[in-house]
Amino acid sequence: MKGTVYICDDEEGMLRYLRKSVSEWGYEVKTHSSALALLRSLAEDGPRGGVLLLDIRMPEMDGLEVLSRVKALRPELGVVMMTGYGTIDSAVEAIKLGAFDYLTKPFSEERLAAVIGHCLENSRLREEGGDTTGPCPSAPAEELVFASPRFRETFELAQRAAAGDVNVLLQGESGTGKELIAAEIHRAGPRARRCFLALNCAALNDNLLESQLFGHRKGAFTGADSSRRGLLEEADSGTLFLDEVAELSTHLQAKLLRVLQDGEFIPVGATRARRVDVRFVAATNKDLEQLVAKGEFREDLYYRLNVFSLYLPPLRERPEDVPLLARHFLDRASARLGREVDRISDAALKVLTRYSWPGNVRELRNVIERGAIIARGRSLTPDDLPEHVKRPQPGVAGTAPVTLAEAERRQVASILERAGWNKSQAARMLGITRRTLDRKILDYGLTPAP
Fold this sequence. Notes:
single chain; globular; Rossmann fold; Helicase, Ruva Protein, domain 3; 13% strand; five-stranded parallel beta sheet; 19 helices; alpha/beta
């Protein structure tokens, strides 16, 4: 066995899913549906290291109270809080109280595996009395599913970026798969055997984000009862993925710039600089160039991060990927949930391909997983889809579906206008070469607006 994972959640469905997934990864798994049962089990087992997945909302006892009792009873145990979108503040408070990390539901198996491995490794090293400078998990593999030429071009550019071992900036709407592309860049690059760590810059307040990224020394602030290495140190020689990088404060932008320029930083509360060698992959759903122009994002940091730029197209602009992705998500959801739903009816596929998917691939996955749960037969039908997905979309009802070529023409035209017809800038935003852009302009007969 690779180690022990305790799981505490009052939802039986979540417990079954977590038990199945985690045990398949080679861990010893102990599940509990109540806080009191968990505390009894921890007391009986005694100190043995491991990791605890703890839901932040428990009926008998508040999750933060459970956390305090667990840390008093088993201080060597790494605790990962599981939280819904409405309880992020509580999860942040949990980290201040000693939790190692938190997972926001719904989370992917890949994210779950990475957090467990990282937490368990740190817990084991602390138990052995060593520091936590050992190796951490690399990016878990998740299949990228696509058929569209548009996304294939993006994928091929990502492969080329990976080989260059340079910093990469990923741009695109939320839910388009930026973290998956970041992980692929890491796996295909020269740092593949080293760490791949991810940080959402919008999920934490400024002080906590600074501590997570740069680490802190004991006594640096109230509640800092021990020193903690930041993600920069843990990702040394590897890759650090900074999601929603536009949300960094000006203070943290300046500190991050020093890392990119000089390869060093000072942990919170420390006086001596630490040197690191980290590859950065940053992502944003905002126009960083506009933020630079407004003085809201440092120009020097922008150019340090944007050595190689990739644009991830939204799902509505690659409609032929929808059926492929839908079947992929259905296969995974049915296997995980123990359901025998293995088909999508033609009528349901028609509804799925007609919908505009403002939440992109993430929204499609959630819709399919919901359908797998409520489907009454082996086939997913329109009755299993949410009403808002079946509702006719503005500008869609009564019209012919937009072809891929037309969707691409509109996207190229839109980006060219945003870039003021600066072809080099537009090519970077689209994630294609200048030569390819010139060809598309000619093919689609595009000209600047008068």
